[in-house]
UniProtKB/TrEMBL annotation:
It comes from Chytriomyces confervae. GO terms for molecular function: ubiquitin protein ligase binding. One of its GO terms (cellular component) is cullin-RING ubiquitin ligase complex. This is Cullin-5. Keywords: Isopeptide bond, Ubl conjugation, Ubl conjugation pathway.
Amino acid sequence: MSLRPKRIAFESTMASLHSQITQLFSPTQGDAAFMDPFQAVYDLCTAYPKPFDDALFESLSLFIAEYAREKRESIVGSLDTVSAYSHEWTHFTHASRYLDSVCEYLNRITAKKRSTMPTQSRRRLNANGSVKFERMRIHALAFLIWKETVLMEIKSNAGNRLLNQIFDFVKRDRDGTPLVDNGVIINTVESFVQVCEFVPQPLQFYIQEFEQPYIQSTRDYYIAESNTLISTMTISGYMKCISKRISDEEERSCRFCHETSREKVTKECVSQCVSAHKERLYDAFAAMLRDENLGDCTLVYQLMLKIPDGILPMLQLFQKHMFELGKDIVARLRPAAQKDPRDFIHGLIDLHGKWSAICEKTFSNNPAFGAALDKGFRQIVNESYEKAAQNFPELLSRFADSLLKKTLKSQWTETELEDKIGKAVECILFLNLILFNYLQEKDVFQKFYSRMLGRRLLGNLSASDDLEMTMISGLKNVCGVEYTSKLQRMFTDITLSQDLNKRFSTSMERQNVNLGVDFSILVLTAGSWPSMPGAIDYDVPEELLKSVTRFGDFYGNNHNGRKLSWMYHLCKADVKLTYLDKKYELNLSLHQLSVLLPFNQDTMLTLGSVVDRVKIKPADVRKIIKPLIDLEVLVASNTQLEDSTEISVNMKFSNKRTKLKVSAAAQNESTSMQESEVTRAAVDEDRKLYLQATIVRILKSRRVMGHNQLIQEVIQLSTSRFIPSIGLIKKSVEQLIDKGYMERSKERTDQYVYVA
């Protein structure tokens, strides 16, 4: 191959090259050697004295345009337009690529000239009507000519036959008629992208000429299809059908469309099949929840995930359904819960467990449905409908008390007990993490729970210390250390008291002191234990006075500066009945023991004599002695229990059990309600003090603070215990101003200043 520029005859050289190119574009061309065309192109581009590169480019443009016109007529004349187009396009792309390699030297010259040309298009018509194109690579030229001469002309002058036939094939595929050859459709659609391979925005032509019409045809098809299906099928059948339709459309768009179109096509299908009928689906979803038709619930969920914010109305319906189910439990079980809350709380626990599992399985454990479940239960627990939520914290604490009490041991065998305790642990953990977490009035729960914990600890009624600590640990995890500090201190007092009793016994033995009774004591920290009602004026019996005095001296010697306040009304005693053939042991209160001890000297006394000896008010003595009479340990001459009533020891007492617990005076419902009211009043007082302390703590760190900001921060810091009303916060602010802890700013009336 000669690289030296030389004089050449343009007509003869171009004629020879034209023959070679014609052979190249012929469907029957073989593997010819291309040295002559390469040489001809080089010679024309380097001809002396003037190169013929412009003339060569124009001649090639005319050839390709004429070839494209011939193929267009052939395609339009075929009944199977898509197959004919695909065949001709495949051959044209191969030939264009070969021609581009032949004209590589021309392409280099074109690239140099384009770098100095203006960017605007220079396509124009000559006077004779021939088409001239802007100089570009031959490959790009071939694709441009094909786009305008074949694709655009078929659209304009052949009724857009190519696209219409493609859309007809796609419709048949959607209707269930399998296509014989997907390849011709795929190849044809790809040509809409390939013809613009060399332009700055290669997908613009494809989007305008194929994607947009394809999406419109998809829209029209599924508008008609979805309306037909939903009017002739059940909602369940419709959802199953369109779920498959959407899945098929996703697969179809992957076959026929460019990757950038697939999401748009599927979105249009979803829009017409789901969004257009979503209100019908939402209405059906509410009925599915009521009927617990979980399979269809899953179908609705999966469909609504495909549209923006599609599950939001579902979440609202789900939350409302949870609330309605909870209200039903409240209506059925709440009346009996005041006496025994176990069925009521277990009903809520079972409800939560059931629908938590449904959320996990039916809604793929979507956190949004978990949050809706939480909101529904928060309504159940806290909303004050029919006064059910007003004492929910008390019911919850009583439920925990029923799990933790030692009374379980009298109801179960050892194996059953272990299983019961295991279930109790599970319930307690659930209580901590779920139901308790929903409470807004956590401080009310704490008040009732601490009172019941105190009774269990003082009466040695806890089934297991491990269970008690599990409960406290769970409460601490939810509310923090401050919330459980008093509960923890109560346990600490019990542990320290055990050690204190050992040291007291050792001290008495060392001094050779015989107390005459088995004596143990609990020393409780004032302020950590809830106040226990029922204290009465009382003198210690002579039999116990020595023990009480000795322990007081021992404690004072070992704890200088501390003062003991004796809580006699909380004391218990174990007494053996030795006057009967059968031995019995009574567990009773210290006050009951005091009433019983005078009968050691006299087996019969009047009630007035008993009052004189124990030095307790007559009304209190009647309440104390009545359980002993009811148990038939003592016998009364009449039921009126007047001062003259004779009380005697029952020498014929008999009972199947040898260990008997003498109950305290029975509390009626009004007494229980009064105790609840007292506890609530204590909570209200604690809230006032808590809010005042919180406000002072905030202002102390900020020094100056706006009213609204202070309100917000107080609410934020108090939420873990309770949600204070704005009115209560304002009242606390006024009280602190009166006490001199803070004052209003002199510059701005809506600001507060901390007073050091």
